[in-house]
Amino acid sequence: MKVIGVCGLPGSGKSFIHQIAKKYNSIIYNMGDVVREEALKRNISIGDMAVQLRKEEGNKVVAKLIVKKIITNENRNKLFIIEGIRSLSEVNYIKQQFNDFKLLSIFASPKTRFKRLKTRNRDDDSDDFNKFKKRDERELNFGIANVIAYSDYLIINENGLEEYKKKLEKFFKTI
């Protein structure tokens, strides 16, 4: 079973991977969706939920929930994508579960990411630069910079959607 983890700060382009990955018959699990589901149940903000889950059950909590979904999935011969990895403890846990695990990081500058988030309109996005910076700091505190540093692959997403699509297509063809 082949598993690809995807990491990147908010607005880097992680969620666009869904469109390309579907062409390659992949099954995609989003770690942020797991946090959003739990935040809805508890009626708290997504950011607070991300922090609280980790305080309650440790840094691997979201990875454990995603791994459980993959293991119970009957489509063993598919490529599985885990979007939104945030910490090395998540990476290490996933690596222990799957022999064929690779990590892809998507990078975009803060200026580029902020512009994208202002137009995306998700509940946890903001058009206030200070709130944007605070969100980045929270992500960095989870250890996302370390994950990016240890990635097997890195894609820079700065120069528009068409170039990014080409880079993703090339990535999926090589794996």
Give a written overview of the molecule.
- It is built from 9 helices and 5 strands.
- The chain is α/β, with parallel strands linked by helices.
- It has a 5-stranded parallel beta sheet with strand order 2-3-1-4-5, sandwiched between helices.
- Helix 2 (31-42) crosses helix 3 (46-57) and helix 4 packs parallel to helix 5.
- The longest helix has 14 residues, at 129-142.
- The model has no long low-confidence stretch (mean pLDDT 90).
Number of strands: 5
Supply the CATH architecture. 3-Layer(aba) Sandwich
Give the strand line-up of the largest sheet: 2-3-1-4-5
User: What is the oligomer described by this structure?
Assistant: single chain
Reading off the top of the CATH hierarchy, the class is best stated as Alpha Beta
Which parts are unreliable, with pLDDT below 50 for 5 consecutive residues or more?
none
Strand content: 15-25%
> Could you name the CATH homologous superfamily?
P-loop containing nucleotide triphosphate hydrolases
- Fraction of helical residues: 55-70%
Radius of gyration: 16 Å
- Overall average residue pLDDT: 90
Helix/strand order: EHEHHHEHEHHHEH
Report the structural category. alpha/beta
Largest sheet: 5 strands, parallel
Overall shape: it is globular
**Domain tally:** 1
Number of helices: 9
- Stated plainly, the CATH topology is called Rossmann fold
N- to C-terminal separation? 13 Å
Chart the SSEs and their pairings.
Elements: E1 2-7, H1 17-23, E2 26-30, H2 31-42, H3 46-57, H4 61-71, E3 79-83, H5 88-97, E4 100-107, H6 110-120, H7 129-142, H8 144-149, E5 153-156, H9 161-174
Parallel strand pairs: 1-3, 1-4, 2-3, 4-5
Helix pairs in contact: 2-3, 4-5
